[in-house]
Design brief:
By secondary structure, the chain is of the alpha+beta class. The protein has three domains: about 120 residues, no CATH class; about 70 residues, Alpha-Beta Plaits; about 140 residues, no CATH class. It has six helices and 23 strands.
Length: about 375
């Protein structure tokens, strides 16, 4: 009967299987999947606001004085002023939040966008709250949207008698279509007699294939690869014709597009992902484990009968160091991803050990791939 693989190997092996493709042939990619038109981008917006209507789960005003100050400023804008000497109001149903949003390219005034609302105080929960009108500003300090609405919080919680139960996160939520665009961002799509395609990753071969595909469709000299990440394309001047031209370019296919060999390592979780271009050269690997065991045993010392001594309890510690014998394993050349997985699986290493082994193989020149640690 064939033995099952150890459980600690399944964690990283499943991550490898997801990236396999099992040596599947390279598929044709469209230009829109490897490049984007320069200048067509979203913009980050943020603002400082107040969430009201909470069921006693808001900020504690004594510890968060800016909550009372922000509420006082809002009331003054509404024509309400607190009398002198009124002190700091205890606003248990109010929480200060930061509101963030992504302003899409070509967004026009009157359109709506989603917003994310996150507590910055000590509010216990934002569930059931309403965000009051909050201006959202861009990096230039200008107001581009106005957010307001009821929060959707994907969590739940309860507390009683010192016990607390919570599911998901209660101090952050979203408002679908919660912001209305007030100002558009100019996009230089129709400026000049050409457009520029920016590749998602630097690759001279991909840039050359993009230019060749465009020239084969639109004529020689229309597209020029400027470097490994930029392709300049001559485009019609009329807005309608330019949009149609870009739409057609994005659907052009790049046959036999193989990505650069890369191994992505997550040092926090031990996950390892390899793409189909990774290969291994012949190498030899020695792998062993070092374990340290510390045990503590109580030792009781009893005094003699009728003496004035006291019972003494001491601890005796034993430390044992055990190092498993490491053996040198020969790893054959692996020209395909399935061979790479089979060779690494044969080492029998834990995910954390495998991180160090892959880095050592790369340093020895036997791993034909780029290592990226995230």
């Amino acid at each position: 009967m064939k033995a099952l693989p150890p459980l600690h190997m399944l964690h990283w092996f499943m991550a490898l299987v997801l990236a396999l493709g099992l040596s599947a042939p390279a598929q044709a990619l469209r230009i829109k999947e490897v490049a984007a038109v320069q200048g067509v981008r979203s913009n980050q917006l943020s603002g400082y606001g107040l969430v009201v209507g909470l069921d006693g789960t808001g900020d504690q005003s004594t510890q968060m004085p800016f909550t009372a100050q922000a509420m006082s400023n809002y009331l003054q804008q509404m024509g309400i002023s607190l009398p002198p000497g009124a002190g700091t109001p205890q606003l248990k149903n109010v929480a200060t939040v930061v509101v963030t949003a992504q302003l899409p390219a070509f967004a026009q005034p009157g359109q709506t966008i989603d917003v994310a609302v996150s507590s910055i105080g000590n509010a216990k929960s934002l569930k059931g709250g309403t965000l009051i009108a909050t201006p959202l500003r861009g990096a230039d300090g200008q107001i581009y949207a106005l957010a307001q609405g009821n929060l959707v919080v994907g969590g739940a919680g309860a507390a009683a008698g010192g016990s607390k139960v919570q599911i998901n996160h209660l101090s952050a939520g979203r408002i679908p279509d919660g912001a209305q665009v007030e100002r558009s961002v100019p996009t230089p799509l129709h400026d000049g007699d050409s457009i520029t395609l920016d590749l998602n990753a630097t690759d001279f071969q991909t840039a050359r294939k993009v230019a060749l595909a465009i020239n084969a469709r639109a004529g020689q000299g229309v597209a020029t690869a400027l470097n490994g990440r930029t392709v300049q394309v001559r485009a019609p001047q009329e807005p309608d014709a330019r949009v149609a031209f870009i739409a057609e370019l994005e659907e052009l296919q790049l046959p036999d597009s193989t990505p650069a060999a890369k191994v992505v390592i997550n040092a926090r979780t031990g996950s390892i992902v390899l793409n189909q271009a990774v290969t291994l050269g012949p190498c030899a690997i020695a792998h062993g484990n070092l374990s340290i065991t510390i045990s503590s045993t109580p030792v009781i010392s009893q005094p003699n009968p009728l003496s004035l001594g006291q019972t003494v309890v001491a601890q005796k510690s034993d430390i044992t160091i055990q190092q498993d014998g490491g053996k040198v394993m020969q790893v054959p050349a692996s020209p395909q991803l399935s061979d790479v997985v089979r060779a690494l699986n044969a080492l029998g290493a834990t995910p954390q050990d495998l991180l160090a082994i892959l880095q050592a193989i790369k340093a020895a020149g036997a791993l034909n791939a780029e290592l990226e640690v995230i």
